[in-house]
Amino acid sequence: MTRSILVWHRDDLRTVDNAALSAAAADGDPAPVFVFDPRYYGERSLACDARLRFLHECLDDLDRQYRDRGSTLALRHGDPLDVLRSLLEAGAVDEIYCNRSTTARYGREVAETVRSWDAVRTFSDDGIRRTDERHRDGTVAVDTREGWGDGGERSVLWQDHCEAYFETDPAERPETLPDNPVESTTSVEAIEERYDVAPEKTDVPRGGTMAGNERLSAFCDRISEYPGVVSPPAAAAERSSRLSPYLAFGALSVRQVYQAVEAAPECRGRSMYRSRLFWNRHYMQKLADWPGWTDRAVNPVLRGLFRDEHDPELVTAWKEGRTGFPMVDAAMRALVETGYINFRMRAMVASVFHYVLREWWRRGADFMYRHLVDADAAINYTQWQSQCNLTGVHPVRIYDPAKQVREYDPDGEFVREYVPELAPFPDEHLAKPEKAPLSVQAEAGVRIGEDYPRPVIDFERRAAETRAQYADLVDRAEEALSDPRVRRRGSFSNRRREVGGEGDESDIDEATSGGQSSLDEF
Ligand SMILES: Cc1cc2nc3c(=O)[nH]c(=O)nc-3n(C[C@H](O)[C@H](O)[C@H](O)COP(=O)(O)OP(=O)(O)OC[C@H]3O[C@@H](n4cnc5c(N)ncnc54)[C@H](O)[C@@H]3O)c2cc1C
Question: Which residue's CA is the nearest one to ligand 1's atom 6?
């Protein structure tokens, strides 16, 4: 008798390039299922409504893909362990197939429990090296960056492993499928009503593989302009790929995007973009190597930095875009209003939060994670730790928000859009409005300190204090890195150490600012 195989979708919301689905179709009758987990909804959720809506649109689109092939996507609600176990025990399905993914602690615990069941088969077809050889704190006990295999010529370095994944043909999509024996007991509409999902963000892309493919194809047509649009925040919002939420939910696979981009004409934009896709896998590998990235500083010496200096008013000013630094305020308001800011703005607001406001990184990282439509635990928290140098290997790079206005928003397009109270100000005073003469303020009809705040903090003084503090910690942080377990957490084994650098962000583009100067450094 043909086996009924439950295909458990999580962050692989597509039918193309889906190893679990393709294997289920080869081995039996696939029964696709998505489980709405209450942990991701309601008060404890770290997902804004716009992200939940994007997920729901991906599910509608996935259901359409299944219906086009004769099946449906069955929707259930509840603790995934209970839902899956009861479907197995009731005999609704014989087995469960699922793709492995890289998630934060909770998702990982659920996935590991399911993986330990006899009736479950998992697939690792995403360029990530996985091993069960781990220390008790979850850190990998082998070096995922170095050669695996026999240690000699047949060993494969991480980058080659990842490249092989990108270049292998994707798993085939079944063209026809049988009826799904698992019935839906809920719907997207019922879930939205139950949890009162009512997004307020604007300009959020539509979820789903179809919308993702349209975006991908339009981006490939203009990929040559990518180097010029990636840094200025207004241009990036309109013209960079904006594929990140599709990748985060797996409406498109990273490999699909890679292969589509490879088919575009050769240009600098293409090679730059290609390296971004390696970074995507690189950060995924880091979280796979150590689940602690989302909650603890990698370097034990830097753990808890600024935690006790907490000033709730400063944090509120940062969250609400009222710091008196126009670029920070524009970026934070854009994040809250649209769920998106580009890499440079994310790095800048993280840097200001940690080095200048001197606040504990987790409070900022959680807030950003909640508001990003493309939130991905593997990238968000690792990037925060890198930007704040909680690793002890990245330089202390403090983004000067005034300089960001001058270099990346010289005509004030971004600042004026999100900080409209500064709109009448002349361009030359948008970087530091508090320095504008009273006559300029009067002519613009904007009083700094009344209509727009003065800076909530003395930028130079606080930055200097933080630099001095890091300089004092350098040796101990360096020493901590001699522990192979700490090095493996961050996959730092073959990386150059740059502890305590005095650099600012002046000559780096985002390609270097996570501490990766080139693709060769992986
Ligand atoms: C503090 C901080 C937090 C971040 N949090 C997230 C997050 O939660 N989710 C997320 O997808 N990206 C995150 N990024 C990385 C980056 O900012 C976004 O991927 C990018 O801005 C998304 O826009 P795009 O799709 O137009 O990117 P593009 O420039 O078009 O890049 C294409 C794709 O490459 C990948 N990519 C690009 N830059 C990076 C990077 N630095 N690291 C890893 N992958 C990258 C993404 O998957 C992205 O969609 C973060 C960066 C910082 C500094």
Answer: 380
- The string of pLDDT tens digits covering residues 50-91 is 999 999 999 999 999 999 999 999 999 999 999 999 999 999
Are 355 and 479 found together in one domain? yes
Flag whether the pTM goes above 0.90: yes
The residue nearest atom 45 of ligand 1, judged by CA position, is 280
Using most ligand atoms within 8 A of CB, pick from 270, 383, 389, 399 the residue to mutate for ligand 1. Answer: 383
Distance between CA atoms of residues 261 and 255, nearest Å: 10
**Segment 168-206, tens digit of pLDDT:** 999 999 999 999 999 999 999 999 999 999 999 999 999
Query: How many angstroms separate the alpha carbon of residue 343 from the centre of ligand 1?
Result: 6
Is 181 within the bounds of a domain? no
Dihedral of the alpha carbons of 462, 463, 465, 466, in degrees to the nearest 10 = 120
With respect to residue 186, please indicate whether it lies within any of the assigned structural domains: no
Nearest atom within ligand 1 for CA of residue 350: 1
Check which CATH number belongs to the domain holding 106 and give it. 3.40.50.620
Q: 413, 409, 392: which is closest to 489 by C-alpha?
A: 392
Which domain covers residue 492, as residue numbers?
293-508
Q: At residue 477, what is the residue type?
A: A
